[in-house]
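Narrative of accomplishments. A recurring question from our advisory board has been how the design workflow behaves on a single, concrete structure rather than in aggregate. To address it, we present the structure tokens for one chain from the evaluation set, followed by the sequence designed for it. No filtering or post-editing was applied between the two.
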């Protein structure tokens, strides 16, 4: 096979090479081969995910070759590329540990230094089975037996793997390799099968990319909210209540600042606060549809085994809010009715999926439900959008917006959906909010607007949501008396802005790396008396700052000033004021979180803080 390179030179590839092989071997542009366009990947296009995929897949083969040389008797299973790297599963005769990775990595690098070329051959199923059986590779034999389509081999050095490709032509482009970890993995992902050892690694077209990737990993580790939660003394978890955080005083400060913001903005926007029960009889969940659709994710309580009465802990606030709406007759004149509750919810998430604050069983949702007339939908959705944008501007987190449209399993007529989707679309367009339409992504009960943020590590999180619901008001038989005296069904809008408070705080901790903006910081100012003689004045200063509404602590420990300053830095406190002989209200020595130092009077400082 001959391929024309971007510079018009030609390259001969081994017999049986595919277009992808050619692509893996040569340039980043398109080449013509027998009238077919071939996407070509090389080091010149190293950020192309396909190019990285090929490079990492090839490195996985090198890993298997290295492991087989170092551990006679090892059985090889599978080794695909994955996001950010690759893995290979092995059945080792003796268990290996993290410490062995260094040795394996050295062997892998030796192969790259020696240089490897990949050769492809097509083989019959019988031939493939015979060769793997002869090598005593039972996992490969099983893969051959269950593979669809044609079978091909890729060989580098003395190592042959069952593989569809594509691969690099040779190992030259692999400039940086790192084995990143070990894990147990069941053969074919089935826990009834044998547990194999999975070795994770990554590879890049150049060392600088690997360095940047490892730096990002380290940054993510440093910012891990579970680590910072302990370091900053915000919360902890205990096995006696999996998936339910214990909030410590400083974590509770963050919670309450957000709670105050929630209450203030809800009040300003015409919501009234309510509180509904935690547990409801099963029949409520039958009415709401949760018994049918969500039962597996709910906790249930039975007083005695076999009791008739079964209670379910609420996984959502909506049914309770419907009951508040239905508690008396409603006239069209009082609509919209906007109800808010930061309700405590319980969801029975599988224990394996729990992840710090980001995935909990004990969820506090900043819920709001708007019951309105059909022709109020557009305005009410618009108000929810303004509300969300206000909050996220305050947090300096730009929102990316998606409008999710009718799914296949929708309930309700096409005319209803047309009107509902138009109302949401208009609400977005009238506010000149950019959005992406997501056909088929709506809930079965109505269209919705989901909003996403990107955090400081470049990860995307879905946070505020505004959802229209035609079904629940009908299920609960909600009505209002219309102008023509008829009883009609109101529209219902579900909206949450933080989503789960627990998850939201977890995301904020990682986004800010624990360096909360001044208004959210658990301790905003620390006053640090230099010696015994300065304590009284330091306390007085602290109380003046507290009177101005700030959260202040005085560090009266006997440690040196240097040590106490370092600890304040570890606690990521925005301002530290060192108070010694020369300090007074007219002249304060102020140290900011990143070390900037200045001298200000108390009045100047208070003016500065008032702007934050
Ligand atoms: Zn392969
Ligand atoms: Zn709801």
């Amino acid at each position: 096979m001959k391929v024309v390179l971007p510079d018009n030179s030609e390259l001969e590839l081994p017999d049986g090479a595919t277009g992808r092989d050619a692509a893996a071997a040569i340039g980043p542009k398109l080449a013509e081969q027998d009238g077919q366009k071939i996407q070509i990947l090389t080091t010149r296009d190293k950020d192309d995910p396909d190019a990285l995929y090929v490079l990492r897949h090839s490195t996985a083969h090198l890993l298997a070759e290295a492991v087989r040389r170092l551990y006679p008797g090892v059985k090889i299973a599978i080794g695909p590329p994955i996001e950010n790297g690759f893995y290979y599963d092995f059945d080792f005769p003796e268990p290996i540990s993290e410490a062995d990775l260094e040795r394996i990595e050295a062997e892998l690098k030796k192969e790259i230094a020696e240089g490897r070329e990949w050769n492809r051959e097509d083989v019959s199923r019988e031939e493939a089975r015979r060769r793997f059986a002869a090598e005593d590779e039972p996992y490969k034999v099983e893969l051959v037996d269950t593979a669809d389509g044609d079978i091909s081999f890729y060989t580098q050095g003395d190592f042959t793997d069952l593989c569809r490709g594509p691969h690099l032509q040779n190992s030259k482009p692999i400039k940086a390799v790192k084995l990143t970890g070990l894990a147990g993995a069941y053969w074919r992902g089935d826990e009834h099968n044998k547990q194999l050892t999975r070795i994770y690694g990554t590879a890049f077209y150049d060392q600088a990319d690997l360095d940047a990737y490892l730096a990002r990993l380290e940054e993510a580790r440093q910012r891990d909210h579970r680590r910072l939660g302990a370091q900053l003394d915000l919360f902890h978890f205990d096995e006696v209540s999996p998936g339910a955080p214990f909030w410590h005083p400083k974590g509770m400060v963050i919670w309450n600042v957000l709670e105050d913001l929630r209450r203030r903005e809800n009040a300003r926007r015409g919501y009234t606060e309510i509180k509904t029960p935690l547990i409801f009889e099963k029949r409520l969940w039958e009415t709401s549809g949760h018994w049918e659709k969500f039962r597996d994710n709910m906790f249930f309580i039975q007083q005695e085994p076999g009791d008739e009465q079964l209670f379910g802990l609420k996984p959502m606030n909506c049914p309770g809010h419907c009951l508040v709406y239905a508690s008396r007759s409603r006239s069209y004149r009082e609509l919209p009715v906007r109800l808010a509750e930061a309700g405590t919810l319980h969801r029975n998430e599988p224990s394996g999926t729990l992840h710090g604050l980001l995935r909990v069983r004990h969820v506090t949702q900043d819920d709001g439900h708007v019951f309105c007339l059909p022709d109020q939908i557009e305005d009410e959705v618009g108000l929810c959008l303004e509300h969300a944008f206000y909050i996220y501007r305050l947090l300096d987190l730009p929102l990316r917006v998606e409008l999710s449209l009718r799914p296949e399993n929708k309930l309700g007529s096409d005319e209803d959906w047309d009107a509902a989707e138009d109302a949401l679309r208009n609400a977005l367009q009238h506010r000149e909010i950019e959005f992406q339409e997501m056909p088929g992504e709506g809930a079965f009960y109505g269209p919705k607007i989901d909003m996403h943020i990107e955090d400081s590590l470049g990860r995307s999180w879905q946070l505020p949501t505004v959802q229209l619901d035609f079904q629940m008001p009908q299920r609960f038989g909600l009505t209002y008396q219309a102008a023509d005296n008829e009883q009609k069904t109101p529209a219902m809008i579900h909206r949450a802005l933080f989503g789960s408070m627990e998850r939201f705080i977890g995301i904020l901790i990682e986004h800010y790396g624990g360096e909360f903006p001044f208004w959210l910081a658990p301790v905003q100012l620390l006053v640090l008396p230099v010696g015994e003689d300065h304590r009284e004045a330091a306390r007085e200063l602290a109380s003046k700052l507290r009177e101005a509404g700030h959260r202040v602590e005085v560090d009266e420990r006997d440690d040196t000033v240097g040590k106490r300053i370092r600890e304040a830095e570890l606690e990521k406190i925005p301002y530290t004021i060192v108070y010694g002989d020369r300090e007074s209200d007219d002249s304060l020595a102020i140290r900011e979180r990143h070390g900037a130092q200045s001298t200000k009077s108390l009045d100047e400082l208070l003016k500065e803080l008032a702007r934050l």
